[in-house]
Amino acid sequence: DAGITQSPRHKVTETGTPVTLRCHQTENHRYMYWYRQDPGHGLRLIHYSYGVKDTDKGEVSDGYSVSRSKTEDFLLTLESATSSQTSVYFCAIRGDVALHYEQYFGPGTRLTVT
Amino acid sequence: AQSVTQPDIHITVSEGASLELRCNYSYGATPYLFWYVQSPGQGLQLLLKYFSGDTLVQGIKGFEAEFKRSQSSFNLRKPSVHWSDAAEYFCAVGAEGSTLGRLYFGRGTQLTVWP
Fold it and tell me: In this predicted model, what pLDDT tens digit does every residue of B56-76 receive, in sequence order?
């Protein structure tokens, strides 16, 4: 299994509070991704990173920000959590082009915003 | 625009029966195709992948998939389903030339297996 951990695994927070989710990898992979998974929607890309300090938006980035100060860590922040951000969040990593874009996923973080 | 369609939201099969999960994609470039499986409360596990060459690819757990360019399809099959195959299955597509390597996922097919 790819060395990807996510923390916390479960979190309950109140509307309006900031929340930071962490993704940590031990594979030294360049590319990292944050997805959210909601019933009937599959996985939707929030943000991604193609190197330290290099990030870009995905299709559902509103209300989220990310940071990557080290290769191994990719942080997802909800600046002011809303109930619509209740979801399961997955981090994924990918190596270089030679691996043909397959991504490996972490175990997920279940976030509930009350 | 890129898209992946999994027409079946939920499929139920009996243990020992054959299985086919459908996936259609829309992508302008040469596609790379994947099937992932997700057990309840778990992350996604890669089942198999297609990049080039033989259009019938073998994966883990006895699954296979066939790439049909003319039909823009990449259907997942298994000759005999086991109760442990009950899970949600996701098809995904990426593209050659996409240096950021992003994938597009279908909405998933939930598989129920009857004993």
Answer: 999 999 999 999 999 999 999
Q: What is the CATH number of the domain that holds A14?
A: 2.60.40.10
Within 8 A of B98 by CB-CB distance, chain A residues are 101
Mutate to test the interface with A, among B8, B34, B36, B100 (most CBs of A within 10 A): B100
pLDDT tens, residue by residue, B35-48 = 999 998 889 999 99
A9 interface with B at CB cutoff 8 Å: no
How many domains, in total, are found in chain B?
1
Q: How many domains in chain A?
A: 1
The residue range of the domain holding B39 is 3-114
Query: Of A42, A50, A90, which has the smallest distance from its Cβ to B106's Cβ?
Result: A42
CATH label of the domain that carries residue B87 = 2.60.40.10
Q: What is the dihedral of CA A111, B10, A1, B78, to 10 degrees?
A: 180
A46 touching chain B per CB within 8 A: no
Q: Give A34→chain B minimum CA distance, Å.
A: 11
Least trusted range by pLDDT, from A58-62, A84-88, B13-17? A58-62
Residues of A in contact with B94 (CB under 8 A): 100-101
Q: pLDDT by residue (tens digit) across B13-60?
A: 999 999 999 999 988 677 889 999 999 888 999 999 998 888 999 999
Domain of residue A40: give its range: 4-113
